[in-house]
Amino acid sequence: MRSPIPDYLTEVLDVCGGDGSGELAAYIPELAQADPDRFALALATVDGATYAVGDADVAFSIQSISKPFAYALALAEHGLDAVLEKVGVEPSGDAFNELSLEIGTGRPFNPMINAGALTVHALIDDETVRRGFSAFAGRDLELDEEVFTSELETADRNRAIAFMLRSHGIVEKDAQEVVEGYTRQCSLLVTVRDLALMAATLANGGVHPVSGERVVPREVTRQVMAVMATCGMYDAAGDWFTSVGIPAKSGVAGGLIGALPGQAGLATFSPRLDRHGNSVRGVQVFERLSHDMGMHLM
Ligand code: DON
């Protein structure tokens, strides 16, 4: 590394800060009110050092970054075989909100798209999500009530997906309740520091680097990071993994995480999104970090 870590991270934000392209996620009215210029970056190592720069104390809803953590909790509770019966591990090649179900079984292609995440959510209860996510972060996470209400009012697409999943026997719980619980899961508030530590817990084989708590078994983290690598960036996953090479997950509030097995967790926040629903400046920061610090896993 060329300079002390915080200086280097600040320099990365400066270099990537100029791009004003991309759009806020307008399909969730409350997210369209966000300050589009917020920009933050955090790094947490598996031995517990954390560095955060920019708008690092600004909280935002976790959105789809919740998906790998909910998947981890479902795997820990039910085991791999039972979860695989309900949701696959293949990239869909479609947008995150498409009804990408396997022909014949009705299984969602993977747990990173909405269909898969609704299925995973139905396997765990709301309390498990809140407690589990808080253990991943190392502090109690709160709900953003405004985002929750706003998204639930406009969640017809997820309702349609949940009803289809029920018709295939993939989801057995009440479809409306599953959408409500999943929306609550997506509305938990985090900062980049929280997200970097959550990703570092995955990178550290399931043990939180600061609290020392074992949140999920090691084999669960391997499964989760592998699916993040192949499916975490939706229909941009191949582009992402070839250029950046880090298992990752994005969210429509503008968050983006990366987990480097055995090394560190990374997180960025910048609300303007590209056409895949991934943060424009977040992707640029990761490209730069991967290049400068040799983080590409291949
Ligand atoms: O279900 C939804 O559409 C949102 N709660 C989450 C989508 C999301 O974050 C997609 N990611 N970039």
From TrEMBL:
The keyword Acetylation applies. The keyword Lipid metabolism does not apply. It catalyses: L-glutamine + H2O = L-glutamate + NH4(+). Its EC number is 3.5.1.2. GO terms for biological process: glutamate biosynthetic process; L-glutamine catabolic process. It comes from the Bacteria. Keywords: Acetylation, Hydrolase. Substrate binds at S64, N114, E151, N158, Y182, Y234, V252. GO terms for molecular function: glutaminase activity. Homotetramer. Belongs to the glutaminase family. This is Glutaminase. The lineage of its organism: Bacteria, Bacillati, Actinomycetota, Actinomycetes, Propionibacteriales. The chain holds residues 1 to 298 of 420 of the full protein.
